[in-house]
Amino acid sequence: MAEAVGLTTVYRGIPYAMPPVGSLRFMPPVSGALWQGVRLAEHFAPVCPQRLPDISNETAARERMPRGRLDTLRRLLPHLQHQDEDCLYLNVYAPSQVGSTTRKSPVIVFIHGESYEWNSGNPYDASVLASYGGVVVVTVNYRLGILGEYL
Q1: Are 132 and 104 in contact (CB under 8 A)?
Q2: Do 141 and 121 contact (CB within 8 A), yes or no?
Q3: Can you give the C-alpha Rg of the chain in angstroms?
Q4: pTM of the prediction?
Q5: What average pLDDT score do residues 67-77 get?
Q6: 3-state percent helix, strand, coil for the chain, nearest multiple of 5
Q7: 27 with 62: CB under 8 angstroms?
Q8: pLDDT for 34-57, tens place per residue?
Q9: Which letter, b or e, does each residue of 100-137 get, where b requires 16 or more Cβ atoms within 10 Å of its Cβ?
């Protein structure tokens, strides 16, 4: 089940791999994240564990990182608080008319950056791009830092 956002249908928190915990912690992702019946896809899943820099002292933070990076981190922080190792999820933004037509839609897979240290696919609202661009957009959460040698 999804949520309608304007002219877009949004599916949040869809697992794309088994939870990378226990014996899977330092292994490549393992497919098989299947479920029975209807899955609610209305909420973002947790983001992967990441060490967030302390920016409470702005002067000290500016000495450690460029202004643009600090501003980006400040914007992203609210979206990076709910962390869990069970984090291999994606979000799909599709124009509402997809599925009601036989026309195929192009797909954009957006893989976030930020120096492989912190971020998530959750903060990136692709509903406008999906609705006006007529494309399906997928944002991805993946493991970062020491846990992230693999997508």
Answers
A1: no
A2: yes
A3: 17
A4: 0.84
A5: 81
A6: 25, 20, 60
A7: no
A8: 888 998 899 999 999 988 877 778
A9: eeeeebeeeebebeeeeebbbbbbbebbebbbeeebbb
